[in-house]
Design a protein that fits this description.
Length: 111
């Protein structure tokens, strides 16, 4: 398994996830995901001003989620998914263990 996490960067990929994908709603974030015919799983973290707040809060929330994804990487399916985490305001102040548990639950639902 590669140590580097694949990131979703193209607008077409995001629109595909929103158009064809499914979602999982949780207290800290909404996860949009879609099956793809690619050899890897790619991730995105979306933190909007409306949902999360100002730049420092958005950046902190993004860093925390990316770290949680990195820590729980082995639990996620190794191939065939595009997964976007759309953050809610509660993710900024959530305890680290709650964040790890929430990411782990998402990963288990995708398996």
């Amino acid at each position: 398994m590669p140590s580097r996490i694949g990131k979703i960067t193209k607008a077409n990929d995001f629109s595909y996830i929103y158009r064809k994908g499914q979602r999982i709603v949780g207290p800290l974030f909404v996860v949009r995901y879609a099956r793809i015919m690619r050899p890897d799983t790619k991730f995105a973290v979306v933190a909007s001003v409306k949902q999360v707040g100002k730049a420092t809060q958005r950046n902190r929330a993004r860093r925390r989620i990316w770290q949680a994804i990195q820590r729980q990487r082995r639990v996620f399916p190794p191939t065939g998914y595009m997964i976007a985490f759309i953050l809610k305001r509660s993710v900024v102040m959530a305890p680290w263990n709650d964040l790890l548990i929430a990411v782990n639950e998402v990963a288990k639902r995708l398996r």
